[in-house]
Amino acid sequence: MQRLCGIDEAGRGPLAGAVYAAAVILDPERPIAGLADSKKLSEAKRDALAVEIKSHAWAWGIASVSAQEIDQINILQASLLAMQRAYQHMIDQFGRHATLIQVDGNRCPIFSVPCEAIVKGDSKVAEISAASILAKTARDASLLVLDRQYPHYGFAQHKGYPTALHLARLAQYGITPAHRRSYAPVKKYLVADCE
Questions:
Q1: Neighbour count for residue 84 (Cβ, 10 Å)
Q2: Cys staple from 23: which of 90, 107, 116, 184, with CB 3.0 to 4.6 Å?
Q3: Where does a divalent metal cation bind (predicted)?
């Protein structure tokens, strides 16, 4: 019997925080209504669906790659690594493997089972949509933790993305340990600190 695992990541573009990925194998006996690309859902709908996915899916896993790791290996490699970690976490947590993996995007990480990359997969494949929702909600939750650690930066509002508010706070307060130092808007403050 084929077991399709969908994998997606969240948080490639932000200037701070980890990149997250999730892996999901849905249970055909327990369908979930309303799955879609996480970016097209409201925060409340994503949060509700994340709870449903975790309780109804046959197996799921979530993993991250830190800002420090992103700076060491670059965001593309970090995204692929997060996907591998999410799949492994799913296996560790449930003891269940896929027979086929489909990932959102145009590149596949290396897995022990066949993998297909599907552009806009998060709006085409239910398993990838579910993974997209788990990755996004996990990442957003991690940014709320950063917001409590660094209340002056507004992480709860901008979630680490390079908004006008975030850039203004960077200019005002400098960088935190959670910032991705290899990203140009952050890197310029490192150069300023050295001069």
A1: 17
A2: 90
A3: 8-9, 104
Question: Domain containing 50: what range?
Answer: 4-147
* CA end-to-end span of the chain: 62
Confirm whether residue 9 is marked as ligand binding: yes
- In 3-state terms the chain splits into helix, strand, coil percentages (rounded to 5) of 50, 15, 35
Instruction: Residue 176: count other Cβ atoms within 10 Å of its Cβ.
Output: 18
Coil/strand/helix, residue 65: strand
**At 34, phi and psi to the nearest 5?**
90, 10
Contact assessment for residue 43 and residue 99, using Cβ atoms and an 8 Å cutoff? no
Residue 169's H or E segment, with its range, is helix 164-173
- pTM for the whole structure: 0.95
SS3 label, residue 117 = strand
Asked whether residue 162 is domain-assigned, the answer is no
Q: How confident is the model at residue 194 (pLDDT cuts 50, 70, 90)?
A: very low
| CATH number (domain holding residue 57) | 3.30.420.10
Model confidence at 37, pLDDT cuts 50, 70, 90, reads confident
Structural domain contains residue 66: yes
